[in-house]
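A quick word before the example. In earlier lectures we treated sequence and structure as two separate objects. From today on, think of them as two lines of the same record. Here is LysR substrate binding domain-containing protein written that way.
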Amino acid sequence: MLERKVDQRNIHVDPAIEIDSCANIKSLVSIDCGYSILPFHTIARDVARGRLACLEFETPNLWSSAHLVHHSSRPLTRATKAVHDEIPSSSTHCSPITRGQAQHSSRVGRRGPCPPDPTRKGSGRVLGIS
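And the structure line, produced from the sequence above:
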């Protein structure tokens, strides 16, 4: 996601390390080992406690997709069903659900790509932390 944005602007970025764990990213940033771009909900507590500082992008247009994946022959748990029910089945911002076979006969349901809906609370709130 970020690589695509910087490439579009002919900006060269040479990351020293790439980590997928928000907890590890926040730990490294908190001890002055660089900077990161993370969704606000992942850093809100740390910002409130003064552990991290954040800057909000003036015009946020970064987004990523998430996928809800479940085994096709098992019923949804209550938690999974609750998340599933919160995802709009049709939206001007999302394509319809598509289903396909994945490894081990799992079913994959996908609603995407879905850029943030500007009418939803917190939509597109992406922050840089330092």
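Notice the following. Residues 70 and 76 are 7 Å apart (CA to CA). We will return to this example when we discuss secondary structure assignment.
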